[in-house]
Amino acid sequence: MILMTKVLLIGATGMAGQEIYQAATKAGLAVTAQVRHADKARELFGTGVTVLEQDALTLSKDELANFDVVVNAFSTSPAEADNHQKLAEHLVHRLGGDQRLLVILGAGSLLDGADDHLVVDDIKKTPGADAWIAIPEGQKKELDYLRTLSGIDWVGISPSYTFKPGPASDQMLVGNDHLLRNDAGESYTTAGTMAKAMVAEILHPAHHRECFTVANS
């Protein structure tokens, strides 16, 4: 008997989470949707969805032990941006060495330009960025924390400069830690493309304790 990989999807009803859920279940993965409101998950995914209804920051070691892979598609408000790192720490302290943690990061931690500056420095110059800059800064702190770890098999996936709804790109661009641009000079990643990359990494692990980035071609 072939056992399906058991995946806990944190933030399943968010922009990226919805696409990951659909792509993962289509690929034959056994997905449990972690959400704060089960009714919303059932509305989006149907009554057959397996739901874990609770705050991600309250997940216990025993609950997490039921899964082979934890996908963190968590999103939050600028006022609570520190929860990106807090959730990473919470999960790491409760996961075993044989489990994988896959995290959606932000473009802010990528490098760009001839001087390899952080993209978050460009984001800060965007008009009105003061209202939400805490989010990419929080995601950068999350990555900095993950990079200190040696006992957990974590992977971070960053979108390109703009992360937006939309289907997967037929030809996905993949890079390491530098901002990607397509032939038209555009730098964006749709939620569908992020889901495509996430599911591919679950099915065929190619990265360990490192981050990579994907973009639409």
SSE blueprint and pairings:
Elements: E1 6-10, H1 15-26, E2 30-35, H2 38-45, E3 50-53, H3 61-64, E4 69-72, H4 83-92, E5 100-104, E6 111-112, E7 117-118, H5 119-123, H6 134-146, E8 153-158, E9 162-164, E10 172-175, E11 188-190, H7 191-203, E12 210-216
Parallel strand pairs: 1-2, 1-4, 2-3, 4-5, 5-8, 8-12, 9-11
Antiparallel strand pairs: 6-7, 10-12
Pfam families: NAD_binding_10
Protein name: NADH-flavin reductase
InterPro entries: NAD(P)-bd_dom, NAD(P)-bd_dom_sf, Polyketide_Oxido-like
Structure description:
Residues 11-201 form the NAD(P)-binding domain. With 217 residues, the protein is an alpha/beta fold. The chain has one domain (6-216): 3-Layer(aba) Sandwich (Rossmann fold), CATH 3.40.50.720. The protein is 30% helix and 24% strand. The chain contains 7 helices and 12 strands. The strands form 3 sheets. Strands 3-2-1-4-5-8-12-10 form an 8-stranded mixed sheet, sandwiched between helices. α4 (83-92) links the parallel β4 and β5 (100-104). The termini are far apart. The model has no long low-confidence stretch (mean pLDDT 96).
Key traits:
217 residues, alpha/beta, Rossmann fold, two-stranded antiparallel sheet, 7 helices, 12 strands, Polyketide_Oxido-like, oxidoreductase activity, acting on the CH-NH group of donors, NAD or NADP as acceptor, NAD(P)-bd_dom_sf, NADH-flavin reductase
Strands, total number: 12
State the assembly state of the protein chains. Answer: single chain
Radius of gyration: 17 Å
Tell me about the largest β-sheet. Answer: 8 strands, mixed
Overall pLDDT metric: 96
Approximate helicity band: 25-40%
Query: How many DSSP helices?
Result: 7
- Specify the structural class: alpha/beta
Tally of domains: 1
Our estimate of the beta-strand percent is: 15-25%
CATH topology: Rossmann fold
Ends distance: 39 Å
Strand order within the widest beta sheet: 3-2-1-4-5-8-12-10
CATH architecture: 3-Layer(aba) Sandwich
Overall form: globular
